[in-house]
């Protein structure tokens, strides 16, 4: 909450001006019953028209001032709320950019989306409404009590009893509503999550004919959101009848005390009218309290959720060393488990790779190959042991520098909306046309790209939906190659390629003087590597050339036999 308020303090001048104008508007409103009382007692009852005209004129003039104050207030309220909201979004975006993968484990993507959009908008609206109208309500109540005491303190004592009682009830409901609204926002996260998954996996859903199942999931999440919101609003709405009951009883008590003449000190008609007028205004102000409770409780929940992200501890401290990498990699007794889990997915891994070597990483699904890759660009830190590049522990290297010298092609080829050239320049911002062509040629995709209507400047849809899996893979590889990396990490990135294209690609990669790691399931790939690392259940089972493993590793022999059947028998 504190973090969020700090955004508003930048615009405190606008806030103070808006609040001062609210006070001005409010003062005019509070003076009106006093003037009415004077017009009745000194003008109408005394049949003095000049008093009616003078004070009537003053009332009109004050109303015009209040009108101008209201319009100017809107201007400053909008300025403060919109700018503070903008700053909050920028801060959230920056913070999320700095997040390590461990932080992403803590906040799912859909939740971050809701926080950066829906939660910020809630706060923006609350700031605007607070400066514009909401603060008026409590101030109007306070001012009414004070002025009613000033008009006739004996009659106004009724309010001194009822208002604190009301405040206690309202504070209790507000606290309860705050907790409930946090649960409501969590349901918004869930709906966003289902929608996001549905949109990104739409092809899968259609091909598996899982539309009904996904529809049920969506309706379930939406219904949960609806029910939680209704329950919360019902509790908050219960405040309205309570407020109206207490305030109406107060008006009746004022009239009763006045007519029975008990302890009123002989109130005049004007005084009674003024006090009833104050109580009515207070009832009006208090009746929007249920709305205020909803908005504030919701804003509090949103502010907490935004604060959680902004104050999230960054699990990764950046290193200081900046150097050109050669690409020698050493894992020294490395174990790794994902944050928040209690099982090592890599166990005591040790190996050393010389700069420029081509290494194939082979292993069953779930054996820890991708996890191993993620430790090299420091997407995660090892839980035990050390990962070093050119003799430097990765933790001591500047993460930005380190990552800029690594070409990482993830398992799922991911392209962005824009042209093919845009996607490549995402890897190297100011790459020349020649560099683009070279990278595409090495990735064995230039011929195909040339055939497209606008060549390299053909637009790819969101996530590359108008390209085949193999084409996307090769463009992703070109994007990694264009930065001329010192280390190239290919996570099963040639799985969709036919054997001939793959062989040409691997041949082209030899012209890049980088250390290449290739996760693969295909022995045709491992055969062309300098060395193979064989993984099973998070352990490095064997290490060596194809021929060496074929002789020494029973598991490698089995894989060989399963892929080359007859040929294996012939050996
Ligand atoms: N983000 C994560 N949080 C927790 N556990 C994870 C996470 N990602 C992967 N794992 C677990 O870590 C283990 C190793 O996964 P990893 O992705 O490294 O295997 P892999 O060998 O690359 O598999 P595949 O060949 O199927 O891609 C698996 O048991 C998996 O369930």
From TrEMBL:
As recorded in UniProt, coiled-coil segments are none
Q: Which residues form the ABC transporter domain?
A: 329-562
Q: What is the lineage of its organism?
A: Bacteria, Bacillati, Bacillota, Bacilli, Bacillales
Q: Which Gene3D superfamilies match?
A: ABC transporter type 1, transmembrane domain (1.20.1560.10), P-loop containing nucleotide triphosphate hydrolases (3.40.50.300)
How does the record say this protein sits in the membrane?
Answer: Multi-pass membrane protein
Q: Which organism is it from?
A: Paenalkalicoccus suaedae
Q: Where in the cell is it found?
A: Cell membrane
Record-linked InterPro entries: AAA+_ATPase, ABC1_TM_dom, ABC1_TM_sf, ABC_transporter-like_ATP-bd, ABC_transporter-like_CS, P-loop_NTPase, Type_1_exporter
Domain ABC transmembrane type-1, residue spans: 17-298
Q: What domain of life does the UniProt record list for this protein's source? A: Bacteria
GO molecular function, a single term: ATP binding
Question: Which keywords does this Swiss-Prot/TrEMBL entry list?
Answer: ATP-binding, Cell membrane, Membrane, Nucleotide-binding, Transmembrane, Transmembrane helix, Transport
- State what protein this is by name: ABC transporter ATP-binding protein
Transmembrane domains' residue ranges: 51-71, 133-150, 156-174, 235-255, 275-296
GO cellular component term, pick one: plasma membrane
